[in-house]
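Tokens as discussed.
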């Protein structure tokens, strides 16, 4: 009796081997610039995190599509970088388009506005205004809202 042996592996075995060789990437939803910053942090990509926070003004975001406007100092190569990084980070194909629309303020611009608003509100407080009147050289450098402990519902 003679056994014939084929050098070609069975198609099912080839498919199983291909699936096992490819790492399984779980698709991660991205709904905001904050989600993108969180992904950059997770993947320890500090440069991307800084650029997203300071240079990207969001115009529109949909699954797999990002429409942005860059700040004047924005990296012109950033949209291309984001396409690759978002694909790597989320497992989904992304398109990143530059828009002529101004878009929303960057994360950094929003944080700066919030800080200025808190300092401005602090100046309006009667106690703070009295202190500033007594000490002309004094200035407010930082302000934050107090966190009050809330009593549990009875």
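Sequence:
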């Amino acid at each position: 009796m003679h056994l014939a042996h084929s050098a070609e592996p069975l198609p099912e075995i080839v498919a199983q081997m291909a699936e096992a060789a490819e790492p399984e990437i779980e698709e991660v939803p991205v709904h905001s610039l904050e989600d993108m910053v969180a992904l950059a942090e997770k993947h320890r990509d500090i440069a991307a995190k800084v650029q997203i926070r300071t240079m990207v003004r969001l115009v529109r975001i949909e699954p797999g599509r990002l429409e942005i406007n860059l700040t004047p100092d924005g990296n012109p190569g950033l949209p291309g970088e984001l396409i690759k990084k978002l694909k790597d980070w989320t497992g989904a194909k992304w398109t990143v388009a530059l828009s002529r629309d101004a878009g929303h303020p960057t994360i950094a611009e929003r944080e700066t506005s919030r800080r200025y608003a808190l300092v401005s509100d602090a100046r309006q407080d009667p106690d703070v205004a009295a202190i500033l009147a007594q000490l002309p050289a004094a200035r407010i450098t930082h302000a934050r809202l107090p966190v009050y402990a809330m009593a549990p519902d009875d």
